[in-house]
Amino acid sequence: MPHPETKPVAEIPEDLCRKLRAILFDIDDTFTFKGKIHPGAFSALWEAKDAGLLLLPITGRPAGWADHIARMWPVDGVVGENGAFYFCFHKTEKRMRKRFVVREQAERVRNHDRLMSIFREIQRTYPDLRLASDQAYRECDLAVDYCEDVSPPLSLEEARLVQKVFERRGARAKISSIHVNAWFGDYDKLSTCKRFFGQEHGIDLDAEKQRFLFLGDSPNDSPMFAFFPLSAGVAGIQRFWESGLMEHMPNFIASDEGSFGFEEVVRAILAKRRG
Questions:
Q1: How far apart are CA 114 and CA 95, in angstroms?
Q2: What percentage of the chain's residues is helix, strand, coil (to nearest 5)?
Q3: How far is residue 157 from each of residues 25, 162, 164, measured CA to CA in Å?
Q4: What is the maximal distance between C-alpha atoms in the chain?
């Protein structure tokens, strides 16, 4: 059963599209489909950049990936590890700016050790549980793979149980479309998104949020859906809604999943901006 207040992407008002200043988006299963970026989505991203929009991926993926994304993609920066940091590459200065919420590396190491202790505790119940394949490139969080590279995958109910153990031990934890991410620190995707736009572009996101769109697909995107008046989801978000894991849903939803839904949303916005 679709969420009763979520409308098709085709119904996004034209006036909101014309006023839009930026598109913020999740990566896994929003910009990608089955682990790959499809050409239509990447082409739509370039078209959005050429149209003058600010672009910011906001992801649970690690610092090592974020460095590549900030350098190589047509984006203005990247928020990674669910808000642990933002990176942005200054092309004229040929310099990467990296801003971590937990600034001291020693503290990040201590937090990692605490998270690993909790993970080993969970493994006593789920001995086949594995860390995500990208864990080696992370600086701040622990990512538990429940359905990306593991077979058989865990169910959403089992992923929720893993999340609850981390939370009971004082960590913050969120479920994405592929991982359970856990961390120590007072931040999330939204707080670091605000920090990025304030520090790098002089934008007060609380005052300007009507001119921003967020596009996502899973429970860790809920704070973004709650904050932005204009938000959209790809079709894959439906399974999380039906499982009762979505605290907040987007205003609009694409008819297709992943990369294809991303392309659908972005091209609809660009067409309405052109009139």
A1: 33
A2: 45, 20, 35
A3: 26, 9, 11
A4: 58
Q: 64 — phi, psi (to 5°)?
A: -60, -35
Task: State both tokens at 184.
Answer: 């120590």
Q: How far is CA 67 from the centre of its chain?
A: 16
- Average pLDDT for consecutive 10-residue bins of the chain (275 residues)? 78 95 98 97 98 98 98 98 96 91 97 98 94 98 97 94 97 97 96 97 97 96 95 95 92 97 98 91
- What's residue 69's pLDDT? 98
Q: Which residues contact 190 (CB under 8 A, 6 or more apart)?
A: 83, 223, 224, 227
Tell me the CA distances in angstroms from 133 to 58, 61, 143, 146, 148, one per residue in order.
Answer: 19, 11, 9, 11, 9
- The tokens for 157 are 């109910």
Question: What residue ranges define each of the domains in the chain, with the CATH number in brackets?
Answer: 7-101+187-274 (3.40.50.1000), 105-183 (3.90.1070.10)
C-alpha distances (whole Å) from 77 to each of 24, 85, 87 are 10, 11, 6
Nearest to 232, CA basis, from 214, 218, 257: 214
Give me the pLDDT at residue 93, please: 83
Cα-based angle 34, 119, 122 (whole degrees, multiple of 5): 95
What span, in angstroms and rounded, lies between the C-alpha atoms of 255 and 8?
Answer: 7
Which pLDDT belongs to residue 1? 54
Neighbours of 10 (CB within 10 A): 11
pTM as predicted: 0.95
